[in-house]
Fold these 3 entries.
Entry 1:
Amino acid sequence: MKYLLSLCFLLSACASTYEVTPAGHTIKTKDDYMEVIEKYSDQVRQYSGFYNTLDFQATLLNSTVAQAQLAQSSMLYQWDEKRFTEEKGKYENRLSKEAEVFLSFYTPERKNDDLFKDTTIWKIFLDVDGRRYEGKAKKLKLQLAEIEGLYPYHNRFYTPYSVIFPVPMRSIEGKPMKMTITGAVGSGVLNFQP
């Protein structure tokens, strides 16, 4: 009986899954954050025999992901209420103007990793609701630890990109989306479910 009570006490102690930021916001734990990232992410890996020719993973930055990232960043950087409100405004503004996807991109030939250049060999498209939008990739200049804090699947062998599409995320979220990356080296399709 004593062991049963000890077990019940131990299990009940593990029941809380929320943390509170210094600004007083209640956020989910890192595991809950990872669930959100995994839900709105997809990955493509292509091989030629044992040789990896193309590898990329991406996360759709919709309202749910933006809110989770806001809470995660608030926890990591211990933002006060003023900073939290400023950052929330930035997220809201971006969601109203454009659709954004974080892309972790790898190809073994360094010269082929040029998504950010005007003369790139790649094209990036977002297909949603019967329409196709062409994306523009921008290389992210953040520290590796910062990027890994928001996208744990990213590592130093991959190049981080922000891909922007000329359509407000607010108008397309909640619909299935397909992001295509295609070029002379290969192509792949990422599927994002609502």
Entry 2:
Amino acid sequence: MTKTYHVTTGGKLYLAGEYAVLTPGQTALIKYIPILMEATIQANPDYQLSSDLFDYSVDLYPDKQYALIQETVSIVNDYLVKLGHTLSPFRLRISGKFEKNGKKIGIGSSGSVIILTIKAMAEFYKIHLSADLLFRLASYVLLKRGDNGSMGDLACIAYEDFIAFTSFNRQKIRKLIAENELLTVLTADWGYQIRPIKVTLPCEFLVGWTGTPAISKDMIELVQASISSDFLEQTQIVVEQIEQGLKKADQELVSVGLKRAGQLLEKLHPAIYSKTLQELVGATKNFTAVAKSSGAGGGDCGVALTFDTKSSCCLIEKWQQAGIELLWQEVLA
């Protein structure tokens, strides 16, 4: 009987530092969201890739819809051959959609699909991948595709943790990819930092979904030209404040820092804060809570930290009244 292997992975949301982290050396705080996607993989006479996002399956012959999965398989196959493995075809099925009512939720679906595919293949070939190597392989896939993101989402999803991610020079690594073979790139010094955050501040982490999808790639292209050295400097200061506040249980430092981080984004570009995102943030007024947009903005999700149970309940109620759906709720400490 053919053995079937199962793997899962989740998504992510930015607490602070989005947009700034597109610049090498900047830091963002990113929270793992365990809303899971699943993959099953088993030996098969031929390659067969399927996803419940599409109503058909493919092999490795290039297909536009399946390009992300196919390119991931190709790169991992290259890695396996270089490690001395004999390749074997398989059937890979990915299930789970980061969407509601047919609308995409911006918690990292493309990054999750890449990492899910890599994890499934590692399980199939019985090889151990550290969280860091998983991150590098996934980043390699996106960098080779010309993706314009920071790769922070991949770091968070690979580590399955609340992290502080300091970004690397992606142009430098793209050049490395173009001029070197895979193993050389994977073992090079990329210049990033990934630090898991141990939260000691008693608080709840809430995610509100506006119901309006936003395309991160398009938002980045729209906003990137507005990023100034002052924005980067101010954002780095507040990100460090928030990280320290979470670690040292300093509620004031976290509240002031998150509020300031949101103001910096609002000032950066008017497209970031949609009307509903403004309502999401404004709903925290009169509660011991603070909220801001998360990720690319323009719709999609916002995040909040609440510091007592009553504030959590009242905020959720106000969000519901504004048509904002509670997507995730978690006690951080």
Entry 3:
Amino acid sequence: MRTNSRGFTLIEVVMALFILSLVLSSTLFAVHQYADERLRIRDRILANQVAWNHLMENYQYSQKLASRSPGDSLKTKGVDTQGGQDWRWEIKVEKAMGQDLYRHEVQVSLEGSDNFQSSLAVYLVGK
């Protein structure tokens, strides 16, 4: 009597499960990295929005800078809420080379963090 079994051996099943576990773990790692990168990009975009908002506010009030003495620099700090998070911002305005030319630099970070998420600088002409 001859039996013709057509199943998988234990070694074949173990190897298939091992390969499947490698594929699934690498996929899980890739998904985790993607989620982390999305959070970093979101934070960077929100920080840039805060920085641009304050640069535009400074631009609207740049006429006041003409009355200052040439060597002065101005620093302003504050906290804004954007996207449900508190963002610490700091604006530094200083006289640049040239007549009536001022450098406005904004640095933005998450409240409680020392690392800046965004740093923007523009040059504005005082009137």
